[in-house]
Structure formats: structure tokens, C-alpha cells
């Protein structure tokens, strides 16, 4: 049975899985060379006041993206099954809002392309949350047994 919001969840789940996998790959590559560490931001994280917390965050956030994407793909077609996905989507939305605010406040968003990137980064979690909400709050079918 198709549910309300299943297309939104499936599309954003694929993007979450791809983004999470790419971020994990970038993290692993940055462990292998100093150039890659500089390019992917690991050197910046290690130089922060709390390097262990910063590196842990760099690993856990991509895992959160992959988990949300996998759960979204598995539960997209089941009605009223997206409560956990909705919570993960809200967590990812909060993380991405914080990341975008950090970029904006640090002055790293300088041109229209970077503004567009920030909008797209925020758009995918919003689409995921809307799709999860629509599925989660889908009315029960009258033919369904209790």
C-alpha cells in the first residue's frame, strides 16, 4: 500500500545515504594523508579546543544520515511507521541548521553558489521530515483491523 509522503521520504533517503557514505569515505581518506585531512576538514577538527568530541561528531553525523536514509527506505511504504524517522529527520534538520548558521556567521558564505548550496543542504532534511510526518500521521484505513 502506498502511503502519503512515500516519494518524499524515498528521494531524501537516497540523498541521505549517498551523503552519509561520501562523508564517511572522506573521513577515512583524511585519516590516510595530511593533504586529504586538510582538504576534508579533519585538520581543522583536530585543531579545535575539543578534538575528540569534534572527530566523534564527524563520524556520528554521517552514520546518522545513513541510518535515517536506510530506515526511510525500509519504512516508506508502511503506513504510520515513520515516528522514528520523523525524530531522526528533526535531529538532522537541527544539525544542518547549526552547520549552515556556523558557515554564515563565520563569513564563509560569500557568493550566490554558496547560498544555493546552503538552501539545498536545508531542503533535503525538510523534505524528509515532511514526508515522514505525512506517513506517520496518515489516517488509518477503514478496512484495517485493530
Give the secondary structure arrangement, pairings included.
Layout: H1 6-32, H2 34-40, H3 42-46, H4 51-75, H5 83-105, H6 112-136
Helix pairs in contact: 1-2, 1-4, 1-6, 4-5, 5-6
From the structure above, extract its key features:
146 residues; 0% strand; mainly alpha; elongated
Brief synopsis:
77% of the residues lie in helices and 0% in strands. The chain has 146 residues and is mainly alpha-helical.
Structure description:
This protein is mostly helical. The protein contains 6 helices and no strands. α1 runs antiparallel to α2. It is elongated. The chain starts with 5 loop residues before the first helix and ends in a 10-residue tail after the last helix. The model has no long low-confidence stretch (mean pLDDT about 85).
Rg: 18 Å
Percent of residues in helices: over 70%
User: Mean pLDDT across all residues, rounded?
Assistant: 83
Sheet-strand content, in percent, reads under 5%
Instruction: Show unreliable segments.
Output: none
Gap between N and C termini: 17 Å
The coarse silhouette is elongated
Provide the succession of SSEs.
HHHHHH
Largest sheet: none
Helix and strand content put the structural class at mainly alpha
The count of DSSP E runs of length 2 or more, i.e. the number of strands, is 0
User: What's the total helix number?
Assistant: 6
